[in-house]
Write the structure tokens for this entry.
Amino acid sequence: MAKLKWLCVALALAWLSIGLASAESVTTADPGTDTAKEDLQTKAAKVEDLRGEISLTNLANGLNLTEEQLNQLISISKEVQALRESYKGLADECMKAFADLKSALIEYGPNIPPKVGQKAGELNDRAKELQEKFQAELPPFQDKVEKILTEAQKEVINTFKPCLLPPKNQKDPVRAGQASSHEVAINILRRVRGIPNSVYEEKRVQIMEKWFKKFEEKHGSLTDEEKAKEQARLFGLVDEARAMSDEEFELNKEELAQDFEIKDLRDQLSEQLKTLTEYREKDKPRMNKIGKFFLNPKMGGVLEAKLTVLKNFKPLPPKDLDKESPKGNAEKKGN
């Protein structure tokens, strides 16, 4: 079932509704209770759902989409949603068949009635086939989305990382999402450059230990081999930064700060695996980040909300700069 992707979303939502109904039947036994407490799992699912919508909203906010673009993207979203809805009948059938299978397994153990197992198995195979068909039908919609977006907007999407809170650099559309910020690393390098040689030689190990401690608190402990290799690389980088003139450092600070980030072997292996997987599946229909974000079933609602805000937006009247100036205020007082 983990491979059913989009179809599994429909199935999961259906299962959640059954779980909620079941919870209510238990918790509403007391007639004095007006509302039932939701199942914790259902609440957690709703929180994750909302988190996803917030992340998509952060992305949409960073794209500066025009009204024309929003209308076109909403139209595509509705087309994909209609296609997705066409699979609802199968999802309902799977729900019933899988519920029957679960009941039979509880009642009979592994010796379930053959018809029950056969029905569930057939629907499961059919669901996999339709999932592959659905995936094959998505790339043309992805192409439509790409034609609507500008190159700058595509760059924003390709560098976007899901986030809950809007990033500090949200106003810059080319840096939407949690695009990597090296401000902390730049500040550390700048401070280290200002330390006298005698003090630096004494404190260099301590400074590096603090940098690694901060990394490990967030990402987990590094092996001794990883740590030794990275420390040697970073000490060399710091020596390079300290030897630069102020002008050279300012020109190269972003690149230096990026290199000053500790390299996680786990991330490197993950990237290699991703590259290998993409190569082996290069002939299969694939969704890129643009498709994954904009063909997401939640994105349509986000875009419609943005369009409503854009249509209702009323710019503030321009200020009279003469009246705002000290000279203007003085003349006003004189009158």
Summary: The chain has a mean pLDDT of 81. Residues 114-137 form the longest helix (24 residues).
